[in-house]
Amino acid sequence: MKNKRGWIRIVEAFVAVLLIAGTLLIVINQGYIGKKDISKEVYEIETSILREIELNDNLRTEILNAAVPTENIPTEVNNKIQSRVPEYLGCQSKICKMNEICVLDNLDIEKEIYAQSVVISANLEVYNPRQLRLFCWER
User: Is residue 17 included in any domain, yes or no?
Assistant: First the structure.
């Protein structure tokens, strides 16, 4: 009878240690699991902004006529982007040639940066392929 009690206490102690370890792991991982992932939402916002610009003939013409590479986006295009960006995001854009790597040089942000691009290749008068790249981050 005494021998059976010893094994039961060992099993009880083992189960108690497992419960405590499991609880600690859940509490420690709360910081990682509870972190809100906004990447899908940001990419959807960027895609919708770029789609509007892509489908607007006036904005397409401004992009096709802009000097490249430039971070000085035409005013009307920049106004369209800034009017559509939510308050919790900061965004910046750049126009580049198609065969160039398109990155922002002067951006010093320690957060995740989400980038999407769209190709603006031609309108009825001009064939001058460009890419408009939109960079966004959480403020």
Answer: no
Let me know if residue 24 belongs to a domain: no
Q: Write the pLDDT tens digit of every residue in 88-108.
A: 999 999 998 888 888 887 777
- Rounded to whole angstroms, the Cα distance separating 84 from 56 reads 15
Domain, as residue range, for 86: 39-138
Determine, yes or no, domain membership for 81. Answer: yes
Contact between 104 and 32 under an 8 Å Cβ cutoff? The reply is no
Q: What is the distance between the alpha carbons of residues 110 and 125, in angstroms, rounded to a whole number?
A: 42
Kindly report, residue by residue over 4-53, the tens digit of the pLDDT. 677 788 889 999 999 999 988 888 777 666 567 788 999 999 999 999 99
Tokens representing 83 are 């009017």
Specify the pLDDT at position 1.
55
Has residue 22 been placed in a domain? no
Counted domains in the chain = 1
Distance (Å, rounded) from C-alpha 128 to C-alpha 126? 6
Selection from 41, 35, 56 nearest residue 86 by Cα: 41
Distance CA 104, CA 79 (A): 19
